[in-house]
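ok so for the tutorial part 2 we go from a plain amino acid sequence to predicted structure tokens. step 1 is just haveing the sequence, like this:
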Amino acid sequence: MLHDGVVNLVFCGVGGQGVLLASEVVAQVALEAGLDVKKSEVHGMAQRGGSVFSHVRFGRKVYSPVIPLSGAHVLVAFEELEALRYAPYASPQARILVNTLEINPATVLSGDATYPKDPLGMLRDHFVHVEAVDALALAQKAGSSRAVNSVMLGLLSRYLPFALPLWLEVLGQRVPAKAKEINVKAFGLGRELSS
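step 2 — the prediction. this is what the tokens look like for a chain of 195 residues:
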């Protein structure tokens, strides 16, 4: 996927899922690989279970941290509704990686809105490359439901041009020491998902 231009990644999910940590790991991996990296994030409601997203851009030279609409090469969504919310950032040819988890936002919980019936189907109507995974089940298999972000990073790593040892080194630096083994295992389970 890496070329003379810039690679654009959008990460999205709900506060507490580790979306920002995942984007930080990717940014650091790209930086360690000698590329120019820019990152932008919004997490005002993250601590309250609100929507959170991050843009990561890397390449030989990156001038802006913001990805334009239809400009992302990959959308990494930690929750199905958040995938729909941020889908306008993805190009028609983008790879959409989605954790098959539904978390009702406040508007649904209050009865002011309803959760869409088939978010994955809606995504597949507009994008050719939609890959849905049960990252929560894999994280639990690795030893902690909090390792969903590492599962998604492992899946993403299959589509980016960085060596496995670099991924594992940066991941090991970014997660707490007591959670390193679980996160490395979760990363491996996510990486094994793709052919």
